[in-house]
Design brief:
Length: 108
């Protein structure tokens, strides 16, 4: 009976620049040395549906969250500004009324 020898080359993993597919392959030799070894090459492929690597997804999520916070902050600041403008207009109208009352009192 022949003995079986397994010779494994290290697996390699490569990614395309777009981070949408990872290919892993490994090669193994089966059979006794010198007896017409069979070579088995296994290639597996996995795709990420979003087209982004996990790091890209995290970055996109971080940017989206930051954008949402900025949007809320701008809306809050806009509301505060509108309140200040309204208050200034009210005080200007009150000032005009007081100035008119003062003028009326001084003219009597």
């Amino acid at each position: 009976m022949s003995s079986t020898s397994t010779n494994s080359e290290p697996s390699s993993s490569t990614s395309r620049p777009s981070f949408n597919q990872t290919v892993t392959s490994s090669t193994q030799n089966f059979g006794a040395p010198g007896s017409g070894n069979r070579v088995l090459k296994i290639v597996t492929s996995s795709s990420v549906n979003s087209g982004l690597s996990p790091f890209g997804q995290n970055a996109a999520s971080t940017i989206r969250d930051h954008h949402e916070r900025e949007k809320k902050e701008i809306l809050e600041l806009n509301n505060r500004l509108a309140e200040y403008v309204e208050k200034v207009r009210f005080l200007e109208a009150q000032n005009e009324k007081l100035a008119a009352d003062l003028k009326l009192l001084q003219g009597s």
